[in-house]
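Researcher: Let's do a round of design. I'm pasting the structure tokens now; please hold your answer until I've finished.
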């Protein structure tokens, strides 16, 4: 007589009964699981079906675990890229504070990026204020002469 895990069988029957369109294997599990007077042949079939279903469940779990690992790696890479960009931008802005030529170059790069479509339409409002030229002390001095 084939051993049948009744608890697992009951869980599967409940789960499969809730499906809108179960496949043939799932229908057979429900049918045999609800049968009160199963014979040895029914139990053997049910045992094979339950083994297959356990393997299918293991596959689903393994795929989910793999997807989580892949997503975690992608997230880690994205965070590292964002961090590098922030560090470089901060360094460029610090250079611009110390050098008038660097400030002009950075302002020109910002204006070009904004005007030539490197800044998306949805982000333009967020960076628009960075493009407004605010006079620096050196340019004010030049204008006073």
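Researcher: That's everything. Go ahead.
Model: Designed sequence:
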């Amino acid at each position: 007589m084939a051993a049948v895990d009744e608890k697992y069988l009951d869980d599967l029957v409940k789960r499969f009964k809730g499906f809108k369109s179960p496949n043939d294997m799932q229908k057979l599990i429900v049918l045999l699981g609800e049968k009160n007077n199963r014979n040895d042949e029914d139990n053997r079939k049910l045992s094979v079906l339950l083994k297959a279903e356990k393997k299918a469940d293991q596959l689903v779990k393994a795929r989910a675990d793999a997807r989580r690992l892949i997503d975690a790696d992608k997230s880690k890479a994205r965070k590292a890229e964002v961090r590098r960009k922030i560090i470089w931008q901060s360094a460029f802005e610090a250079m611009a504070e110390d050098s008038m030529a660097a400030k002009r170059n950075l302002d020109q790069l910002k204006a070009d990026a904004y005007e030539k479509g490197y800044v998306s339409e949805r982000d333009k409002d967020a960076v628009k204020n960075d493009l407004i030229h605010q006079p620096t002390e050196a340019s004010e001095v030049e204008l006073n002469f």
